Amino acid sequence: MTIYSGRFHACLAEVLRWEGGWSDHPRDTGGPTMRGVTIYRYADHMGYARPSRGTQAWERIKAELRRIPDATLHDIYHRWYWQAMRGDDLPVGLDLEVFDFAVNAGHPVAIRHLQRVLGVRVDSDIGPATLGAARKGDPADLVRRYTDSRCAFYRACREFPTFGKGWLRRADGVQTAALQMIAASSTLPPDPLEPLSIWEQIILPPIPDADAQAATQGRASAGDPLTAGQTVIGRASGLAGGLGSAQMGVEVASAASRARAPGGGIDPLTFLLTLAQSPTFWVVAGIVASAAYVWFERKRQSRIL
Predict the structure, then answer these.
(1) Which of 4, 19, 89, 259 could bond to 36 as cystine, CB 3.0-4.6 Å?
(2) How far apart, in whole angstroms, are the C-alpha atoms of residue 77 and residue 18?
(3) Is the separation of the CB atoms in 8 and 82 below 8 Å?
(4) What is the rounded CA–CA span in Å between residue 132 and residue 74?
(5) Range 26-47 burial, b when 16+ CB lie within 10 A, else e
(6) Integer Cα distance of 106 and 124 in angstroms
(7) How far does Cα 116 stand from its chain's mean position?
(8) Residue, of 195 and 94, whose pLDDT is higher
(9) Measured between alpha carbons, how far apart are the two ends of the chain, in Å?
(10) Beta bridge partner(s), residue 155
(11) CA distance 191 to 187
(12) What is the mean pLDDT of residues 209-224?
């Protein structure tokens, strides 16, 4: 089983929230798509020749794509998008922005927009100059400027009348999530690339309702974009703040982000298993358990006396 970085896992969960389930829109140039993976990308990854519409190969690969296993889905996202735009090397928050746009429009397009925002040579390849400029800039400012560049790209697309509303909603929602990641990372300990535990690797985001129909064109589900105060992350941070621990608040927020379902709710099992990886969680749990023990012991002794 491949081990991915925690940052990849967190960013992928956000991308899949917008990608939805199965889509086969006649105006989608990517063709049939399952959870953001197009029939052409799936064929490339599996080593198949790219099929032509209406052929037996097309129908066979289409049916296979619709049943794509989670492990294959993750491999595709990691190989063709995350590694291509060097997600683990970009600053937190900006990694999500570029990753999501790479999935939505192709990694060469996403990288070119990043290089224009950074003011470096535009060559569709992230090298030392691009990474150096990204690390020197203010992450939140770069995220906002990248979103503006992304939205300008969408408005210039001929498919904008069909998919534009969903594209812009997606860009706004991803920006909100990226800014929250930046805020959370400022109080997190170093080494954000610590590999996930075996439990986190097998607890994957659930397949959303196919009616979401987000697909590669970014057709997000109906409703206004989430604001920081309305998201699961925001609510989780507020709840944890009541415990009097800023670090615990960040880790609860991070666990809530990874466990977030497409509809905005939290998968309880994923949330608990993710939170269980937090050292701070066990410290707080130990303090609470110790306090409870002392309280019960005093009650017992008072009864004896």
Answers:
(1) 19
(2) 14
(3) yes
(4) 28
(5) eebebbbbbbbbbbbbbbebee
(6) 11
(7) 23
(8) 94
(9) 59
(10) none
(11) 12
(12) 36
Mean pLDDT of 84-94: 96
Residue 304 half-sphere exposure toward CB, CA atoms < 13 A:
6
| pTM for this prediction | 0.62
Query: How many C-beta neighbours within 10 Å does residue 52 have?
Result: 8
- The residue whose two tokens read 């799936």 is 42
Q: In what order do the strands lie in the sheet with 33-34?
A: 22-23, 33-34, 37-38
Length of the chain: 305
- In three-state secondary structure terms, 34 is strand
Report the alpha-carbon distance of residue 25 to residue 61 in Å, rounded.
17
Q: Are 15 and 173 in contact (CB under 8 A)?
A: no
Q: In the chain, which residue ranges form alpha helices assigned H by DSSP?
A: 6-19, 39-46, 56-66, 70-77, 94-105, 107-118, 128-136, 139-155, 160-185, 198-202, 232-241, 246-258, 268-275, 279-304
Q: List Cα–Cα distances, 125 to 77, 122, 192, 230, in angstroms.
A: 18, 8, 24, 36
C-alpha 217/C-alpha 219 separation (Å) is: 6
Average pLDDT over residues 182-206: 52
Nearest to 224 by CA among 169, 269, 178, 268: 169
pLDDT digits (tens, 9 = 90+) for 50-72: 999 989 999 999 999 999 999 99
Amino acid, single-letter form, for residue 229: G
Instruction: Determine the Cα–Cα distance for residues 218 and 200; give it in Å rounded to an integer.
Output: 27
Q: What is the pLDDT of residue 255?
A: 62
Break the chain into its structural domains and give their ranges: 6-223
